[in-house]
Amino acid sequence: xxxxxxxxxxxxxxxxxxxxxxxxxxxxxDTQRFKTKVKWITYLxxxxxxxxxxxxxxxxxEVREFFDTYTPNKIDGHEMEIKLLCxxxxxxxxxxxxxxxxxxxxxxxxxxxxxxxxxxxxSKDIDTVSTRQITLDISRTFxxxxxxxxxxxxxxxxxxxxxxxxYNESVGYCQSMNFICAFLFLFFxxxxxxxxxxxxxxxxxxxxYFSQVLxxxxxxSLVVQFFLKKYCPKVYSWLITNHCDLRLFLTSWLMCIFTTxxxxxxxxxLWDTLFSEGDKILFRTSIALFILLERxxxxxxxxxxxxFGKTYEIDDGIDPLIEWYTSxxxxxxxxxxxxxxxxxxxxxxxxxxxxxADLLIDTAFNGLGTFMRHSIxxxxxxIGKEILKETAEQxxxxxxxxxxxxxxxxxxxxxxxxxxxxxTEPHIETGKQPSDGTxxxx
Length: 442
What we know:
Elements: H1 23-47, H2 60-69, H3 79-88, H4 95-102, H5 105-110, H6 115-123, H7 129-138, H8 151-167, H9 177-184, H10 191-205, H11 215-231, H12 233-241, H13 247-255, H14 264-277, H15 280-298, E1 305-307, E2 310-312, H16 320-323, H17 340-350, H18 357-367, H19 373-405, H20 409-424
Antiparallel strand pairs: 1-2
Helix pairs in contact: 3-14, 6-8, 7-8, 8-9, 8-10, 9-10, 11-12, 11-13, 11-15, 11-19, 14-15, 15-17, 15-18, 19-20
């Protein structure tokens, strides 16, 4: 990816900046990134003899050679060590290599040599519902980006999506996959690696999210709402009182894995934890965002706010939470919200200012305390039964309309198969977790 020297308008990943980051936070983050990289180097030197000793910076070629040739060590007791490092952020030089290994992608690519090339050949001239939608969506993917909107890059994104649509015919293509695929191209130059990373997200980490029906992502949105009752009761009470359904906007957060809502420097940090710890971070992050923005959303007394042992003082009219990631005068932020529509509008106007990934991740993990995966999956199944029943009836009506209007035969067939599965075996899929085995680097 090319280097950008105009950081007044674009961030380090080439996205247009709508709310500028404060110089104080930028300086803190630069210092923190350096300290974090030192920790990673120390970790690799400790457990992997092939990693060069000393603080010497390695070239990109040397880093790739290290990750391509090393043999993972099975060392008891340091799984938590790697998780904590990922929460602090993976250094940009290591990120693509670790993502590939933590996400199943490296394993899957190694076991399928040449498959991506064959899929590209097969998908060149095919005309399906999926390929037509891909063509429409490519020009609407991160419009205004300084790199992703270049014709050659758009062709690469389309090629990966077309290949995936015939590789996984049960999914084909679903809107939002274009954003995930494009975001991956910011960190990978190799199309085949992007293809297998996309496959890992869709098939392994978030199975069921990307479909014609979107039942699972609706369920997960309602699971987030359920846990808000415990972790953010004032927001939960407001949602219930005002009949505000989180599915109205949380669905897009989850399906795009925050790429279209949060600043890229924050999104990248969340993806580091996604590939390290699995889909539970989507729940932790969503709840943490509501906790941090609660004052602006539903209104609270303007007193110093204490969060998990840290007190953020109000100074010179700056909201203490907002000041942590940017400098927006408090009078420029509407508060409190009055209707569900206003809630969504204010919430999504604040998300682009969430530059402080450290605060967000600290809140998501340390602030929420124990957040067991089995609790998430238990709620998924409870909520899922009703959602699957409700969605199946909606899909049946959709199938009838498509038949009357001569809709795509293949799409009708897929929908019928989904209804049959939902009615005979109602169950919400859960994603593979990095600790399951081959995806973990240790």
